[in-house]
Amino acid sequence: MINLDDETRHISIGKLSLFLYPWRQLEQDARDGDLFVCHLVREAKPIVDPDNYLDKLRTAFKFRSTYQDEVSWAVDLGWYLVRFGDELNSNLLGKRALWCIRTILIARGAEQRDPVFAPHRLAEQTQSALARDILCNRRRQHEDAVVRESLRQFLCNEAPSCQMLELKDRDAFIKGFAETSNKVALQTLRQKERSEASYLG
Question: Where are the alpha helices (DSSP H) in 44-88?
Fold first, then answer.
């Protein structure tokens, strides 16, 4: 949903969860070729839109020439999960592994000006059978070791030049996340810390 304020708001009513996004930010992100906005302009269907904001967003959207930043963020976080994902709870590990796989495939599609977002369509874009299983059965609980191995094979297939990350230590990963403003990776670390604090009481 769109609002005319300057910040994103979250509304939760029972099982219903809604995010209200500021129009100015959405419009700017569209001009910048943001992948989230790309998903909106490609697949969103308006329920109530008397001022035609969705059409305006579609008009504003411009693909970038490259989505290498998004790929690099996902690859870096992916190798961190492969190396140190046993320190995360299973739910967070599964969500972040899926995010890495999806982001790389969507970004590569966006560079070809033909991104897809549905899990079964994304599964068609990778040669990794294990990654296809993660995508197509994303709501099924997978063993942590299976998730990490699936992600490792996917990264070796889709980003083979980055295999040096397999030798990187934890501190180097964390430093790199901060230096590259890897928001999802940094959020993952914060969630890990909160989970650990909650467990320790």
Answer: 53-60, 68-84
Q: Evaluate if pTM is beyond 0.85.
A: yes
Strands 16-22, 9-13: pairing is antiparallel
Name residues whose C-beta falls within 8 Å of residue 81's C-beta, 6 or more positions apart in sequence.
88, 93, 96, 97, 100, 147, 148, 151
Angle, alpha carbons 164-166-170 (nearest 5°): 110
User: Are 77 and 186 spatial neighbours (Cβ–Cβ below 8 Å)?
Assistant: no
Give residue-wise pLDDT tens across range 167-183: 789 999 999 999 999 99
Q: Ramachandran region of residue 16, left (φ > 0), alpha (ψ -120 to 50) or beta?
A: beta
> Distance (Å, rounded) from C-alpha 105 to C-alpha 82?
18
Whole-number Å distance between alpha carbons of 72 and 54: 30
Quick: pLDDT tens for 77-127. 999 999 999 999 999 999 999 999 999 999 999 999 999 999 999 999 998
